[in-house]
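Students often ask why we bother encoding 3D structure as a string. The short answer is that it lets us treat folding as translation between two languages. Here is a chain of 376 residues written in the first language.
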Amino acid sequence: MKHKLDFVDETLEKIKSRNLYRKLHNNRVQGPHILFKKKKLINLCSNDYLGLVSSNIPNLQLQSSSRLVAGNDFSFSILEKKLADHKSQESALIFPTGYMANLGSIPVLAQKGDLILSDELNHASIIEACRISKAKISVYKHNDAEDLKKKISQKADRKFIVTEGIFSMNGDFADLKKISEIADKNNALLVLDDAHGDFVAGSDGRGSADQSGVAKKIDVYVSSLSKGLGAFGGYVASRDKIIDLTVNTSRPFIYTSALPSFLVDLALKRFSSNREKHRKKLWINVKRIQDGLDSIGYTFNSTSQIIPIIIGHEKKTMEFGKYLFDKGVFAQPIRYPTVSLGLARIRISVTGLLTEEQIDRSLDVFEAAGKKFGIL
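And here it is in the second language, the structure alphabet:
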């Protein structure tokens, strides 16, 4: 008779045989570097795009209740007003994470009888949020306006289009001009997850919709405080009544403890800091790395701070990543199920912390790796 936990071992072995096994590695981030035991590497895996995270530890004051009970520190309303203005919306609502912001907003709006049009490369949190809703889900081809036009013609009580602004694994921008036109013609609500575009793209970091000139066309923004802003948490920004409905019906908002107020204070400080200086430095670094990779011979479609180097085979990608690691560069291999099987990649995440010397050193390592593994 098999042991009742044998299936766990069998499942893990299958994962290992497909070169998809993951394990945690203890590390410590130190400015533009990352430390693994005594090994110091250039960090190309950070979401601290503007380099605003510091080692200062604020006064730790924790909330022990949901915001609807006794955890609604006054600092929330101050930050939410700033975030709403930042996105040219009437109101905003802070969640403990960006993942929870999606889970706590999309199912509030999309109901049984409705239709959700979701980009095939949307983040896992969007996919999960759509599943939780009782709406019909129709997945359209990545950034394909023609496919979206076809699929949105289905009958439904209400229609929703959900897309990322900058796609987290491809680094490309959504074609928000065309998507917003389709939304208008079909009276569909447009929901934009701008986690990787917020505080990074557009005027004063207002995001991907601002950069595309369609900021006023977005009905609901979902975003992160943990990436470009260098703080922690997530938020939703929209009309007053949508935020009011979320407060009253969103289970992930109602039944969870509030974000600790010291993190809200930290986000306020980041928001009021000289973000533009850091943002400009980020885009200088993005251009330097993209130009460098292009001159070496790498091909990629990204126009953002997220640059995927598609290798394909999972084992080869892991070996490629290990070579980078051994040479002092940390750029994480990304495999299934985060991306499709056979489309494994090295995901470069550029920040404003990197110096010219560190970028040039990284490019040298990427060139050597590309030649070693037959990528170039």
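Translate back mentally: DSSP finds 14 helices and 14 strands in the chain. Keep this in mind for the problem set.
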